[in-house]
């Protein structure tokens, strides 16, 4: 039986394990949508914005490790995908995006809604091609799937509506060629020996671990023990290496906490393990540095590099660890882990003082109560901004939980659509969208998607009526905050109007019960927490430039008549200022 291009493509996606396509229907996309309707094993998920479709597909791929798909109609429809696709591609998750196109005879004539998706999506993908004729199927479509799975990343197929309706000439062509198992990337033994010699002769070694160590946790901890090395981590490395780790010293970067920065600065050898940490200002320029990465293009592009090792982290450490002589001098690791424990108690844990009497609610306290109330295998999706900070510092990993966010692309509004994808993929698992009021308001319509599919997404909104991270950025640069405040919105009423059970919490005494009840409720729920708008994160390393920036901004605010706001901010943040 002859099949159209759209039917063949949909069948290929099903054969590759795709169970749903996220998107919004539209004229040029109709052949694909109708093919989904008629094909067993795949569903169409109607979101309210194509950006949310891409985020949802990315989260599903992140949680399951399987290929996912999203789609947008011609012109504006598929253009809306691009932000979520950038995020998915930078997170290296396998997504196929179908960008439907104007009629093929009209391409190049400035036709209604004409864009050039095959060009526009190049930077946001590992593969972007247009299907101009049915004769390209199945090879081009199959190639797109292979690229998405093996890079991994985003593969974009631009498909004119009229071509989608053409018949595929060779109906006997195989739907899909089975993918090969991932190759082993084994490092050069000479580089491994050089790293072993450097570790053996160094007195103070620090490991800084990222997401590239996901399948090598045991080997990393073995190396830390052998080298008596404190272990810091990036944000994406937190869920992999922080829990049950006696060598843990926390995280670096603007969101960081604990003794990680000191452990890196005071080391005489820093080993970057599976991380492409982008913030070079937090990486010491005067400390000899080694780097292990499966992608050779990452080596040395962020900071100084004395010892490069190109290879998979697990493969590298299985060769490296037997070469390491176990250090008997444990002074450095003891100092750093003790400093970390002290900082966690005095600074990061400072929210514990009289918090049940303090209004507005400390966001740190709200994050801790959420952490305690959530399931042991919960999936947290986290908005960019201050919610990223509170999640990084207070959500406790355990090897079963997942924390998903726009950690490399840094997009606002990702938490809710990410939660949709995670809940679609694993509806029996607790999914918590930790959203800021700024992020939630940006893609607020996706609450309709949650209600429409009765998804068990628990939306926890930290509502402070301001863009807190932007405010902090302005203060660091010496600028008084401007344009960061939002009008007061009662998100509880919005949720209730959509038929989603919701509560609003203003008194911290009510917080624990509200979160516990909301998380236990079947189906969707929203808990709105009114948090302190002046609570800002203090980075683990405070530079003189930051201090000057804060001082300048505060002076400008006072001279502008904002003395009350300055005092309120001081009271809100004194608890977080590092103390000896």
Automatic annotation (TrEMBL):
It comes from the Bacteria. The keyword Chloroplast does not apply. Residues 383-529 form the Thiamine pyrophosphate enzyme TPP-binding domain. Belongs to the TPP enzyme family. PROSITE patterns: TPP_ENZYMES. InterPro entries: DHS-like_NAD/FAD-binding_dom (IPR029035), POXB-like (IPR047211), THDP-binding (IPR029061), Thiamin_PyroP_enz_cen_dom (IPR012000), Thiamin_PyroP_enz_TPP-bd_dom (IPR012001), TPP-bd_CS (IPR000399), TPP_enzyme_TPP-bd (IPR011766), TPP_POXB-like (IPR047212). One of its GO terms (molecular function) is catalytic activity. Gene3D superfamilies: 3.40.50.970, TPP-binding domain. This is Pyruvate dehydrogenase (Quinone). Keywords: Pyruvate, Thiamine pyrophosphate. Residues 4-115 form the Thiamine pyrophosphate enzyme N-terminal TPP-binding domain. Residues 192-319 form the Thiamine pyrophosphate enzyme central domain. It comes from Georgenia soli. Coiled coil: none annotated.
